[in-house]
Amino acid sequence: LTSKTFIIEDPLGLHARPACDLVKEAMNWECDISITYKDKQINAKSIFEILSCAIQGGHTIEITASGKDEQAALDSISRLL
Amino acid sequence: LEEIKYSARVKSVGAEGLEFLKLGIMILFDEDAPKDLLEICVSHERAPLESEVMCGDFIEIVSKKYEIIYVGKEVNSSLKTMGHATIRLNWDVSDVLPGDIVVSGESSFHVKTGDMIKIVSAPMEETDFDK
């Protein structure tokens, strides 16, 4: 299990376009990837869960990856974010 | 009397866009949106934004009318340039993004290809001057 905290720097938040990019990236990996936002944990491979959460700019999210390629997945998502 | 601010015909509803509608979220993009966004959205023919959308306006989808109770600060700009806005039904307005519109209404969103989506001003009362 590995995790990292990020601040959403885009003032528009994690809206449709970047959310799609994040899901596409997450889908490239076998491990489970979750996002914790405001005490809620959601699946980073689900566009429904991400956009339903309305993750706002300036707020912090924690991304957790769990599985055999977890570190590579987290590194890759870090570069994207 | 009401002013039509935005009026667009639906071109397609993406497979995932349909699922969002069930959650009370309608993601609008014009037809030029990239393919992955078309999957999650209700795409529509590009239309001019005649005047700024504001609280108190209404969104009309076929015969259903929803009152706009929140307009994010990016909504007018993104509607104008990409026909984009995310419309959330009966949503907590403290939990939204700058590109979001929140509407209140009793019925869930039902949209299909060919339907018209309109944003109209609140009805204006006719004055003596208009008569």
Summarize the structure.
The complex is a heterodimer of chains A (about 80) and B (about 130). Chain A is α+β, with helices and mostly antiparallel strands.
Description of the molecule:
The complex is a heterodimer of chains A (81) and B (131). Chain A is an alpha+beta fold. Chain A contains three helices and four strands; from the N terminus they run E-H-E-E-H-E-H. Chain A has helices at residues 16-27, 47-53, 70-80; strands spanning 2-7, 32-37, 40-43, 60-66. Chain A has a four-stranded antiparallel beta sheet. In chain A, strand 2 and strand 3 form a beta hairpin. In chain A, helix 1 runs antiparallel to helix 3 (70-80). The longest helix of chain A has 12 residues, at 16-27. The radius of gyration of chain A is 11 Å and the shape is globular. The mean pLDDT of chain A is 95. Chain B is of the alpha+beta class and 131 residues long. Helix content of chain B is 17%, strand content 35%. Chain B is built from three helices and eight strands, in the order βαβαβββαβββ. Chain B has helices at residues 15-22, 35-40, 75-82; strands at 4-13, 25-30, 42-44, 58-61, 64-71, 85-89, 100-104, 116-120. In chain B, strands 1-3-2-6-7-5-4-8 form an eight-stranded mixed barrel. The longest helix of chain B is centred in the N-terminal third of the chain and has 8 residues, at 15-22. The radius of gyration of chain B is 14 Å and the shape is globular. The mean pLDDT of chain B is 92. Classes of the chains: A alpha+beta (81), B alpha+beta (131). Chain A binds chain B through residues 11-17, 20, 24, 47-48, 51-52, 54-57, and chain B through 16, 19-20, 23, 25, 27, 29, 36-37, 40-41, 74, 84, 86, 88, 91, 95-100.
